[in-house]
Write a structure and sequence with these properties.
The chain is of the alpha+beta class and 179 residues long. Helices cover 28% and strands 35% of the residues.
Length: 179
Amino acid sequence: MKRLFILLPSLLFGLTAQTQNVVDLSLLIHDSIVVGGSLDYLKEIRDKIDQLTKFPCNIMGDTIWGIEIIDTSPEGDCDLSYWTNSFVISATCDIAGDFMVVKNERLIDSCMTRWVTTWQKDSLTTFGDSVTSFSYVIYRPIRVIFKDEKILFSTFEFADIHYYISYEDSEEIRKKWRN
């Protein structure tokens, strides 16, 4: 199970900050994953989400959370969701990124959202498996903290999570994303 914690220098901060209120989240995530030595298998999909290039946040002190879920089966799909306390952007698409729906709504169930927002790594990894070449579904929680003109990027991966999910919450999310 890989864990990645990177304190990115002000140089990267300068490259990703377009104004005081937005960042290029797609570039920030990609650069951080690559610097950490991991593969960024969702870069092309993330690059298709225009809203990520001008992601609103307070670069003087804010946190962006995210989770990327990829189903590696041939007919698989991807779910990506990123949020702050005041903004959310989510996307779902097929594995090639050809059919994509992007909304300013929650895509991830409330339990997973709470674990990522409170950075409950133990809860997430307890229910998941280590990522191997045989993993069916891969999860990548992301946390980006802006503080004192520095960026702290944290991520890790786990596979095939088994946890209790609220049926009502899942159904509500599915209805919103079907319309």
